[in-house]
Amino acid sequence: MVAAENVSSESGVFCTHQTRRMTVSNPQRGHTLVTEGEVARTFWQRFRGLMGRSSLPDGYGLLFIHENWIHMFFMRIPLDVLHLDDSGRVIRILESIRPWRVGPFVRHGTYVLELPAGSVERTNTAVGDILRIAPRD
């Protein structure tokens, strides 16, 4: 998925540059990770991310496009973080990464999906799973 065009992959990612809300499912595990998700498209949305939030509801997620690392500066809560390649395959998982940490640079990472801590364990998501990202009306 490239931010400036429509891209669809049978195995994983589907989104457009205009998509703001989305859902994320893991067909291999039979779970939905995100029911109320957002795509951070603009510079401000990407910069702000989830900074300052004191909690996240289950089913929430924030997707960053063209990202291969994260920071947890100014965060107040831990997060689960999934790094995905361009097909939506999970290539790295950071569980319950705490505030004021810097995540690793993930080679071949195209997307970063930030989730409430505990989401990875609850959904049994694993490296190698292919996630389906779909626009939500």
Characteristic terms for this protein:
disordered N terminus; seven-stranded mixed beta sheet; 8% helix; two-stranded antiparallel ribbon; Jelly Rolls; 137 residues
Explain this structure:
There is one protein chain. By secondary structure, this protein is mainly β. Strand 4 (31-40), helix 1 and strand 5 (60-65) form a beta-alpha-beta unit. It is built from 2 helices and 9 strands; from the N terminus they run ββββαββββαβ. Helix content is 8%, strand content 36%. Residues 1-11 have low confidence and may be disordered. A 7-stranded mixed sheet has the order 7-6-8-5-4-3-9. The protein is globular. The two termini are 19 Å apart. It has one domain (7-135): Jelly Rolls, CATH 2.60.120.1140.
Topology of helices and strands:
Layout: E1 7-8, E2 14-15, E3 21-26, E4 31-40, H1 43-48, E5 60-65, E6 79-84, E7 90-97, E8 111-116, H2 119-123, E9 132-135
Parallel strand pairs: 4-5
Antiparallel strand pairs: 1-2, 3-4, 3-9, 5-8, 6-7, 6-8
Within CATH, the superfamily carries the name: Protein of unknown function DUF192
- Biggest sheet overview: 7 strands, mixed
Oligomer: single chain
Distance between the termini: 19 Å
What's the overall average pLDDT, rounded?
84
In CATH terms, what is the fold-level topology?
Jelly Rolls
Shape: globular
DSSP summary, beta strand count: 9
Low-confidence stretches: 1-11
How many structurally independent domains? 1
Look at the structure and give the CATH class.
Mainly Beta
